[in-house]
Amino acid sequence: MIILVTKISFKISPDEYRTLSYKVAQELNDKEMYKWKIWGIDEENSVGLTIYCLQDHEQADKVAEYLNTMALIYHSILHVVTIERYEILEDATRLNYGPIDFSDVRVEQSTID
Question: How many domains, the chain?
Answer without folding.
Answer: 1
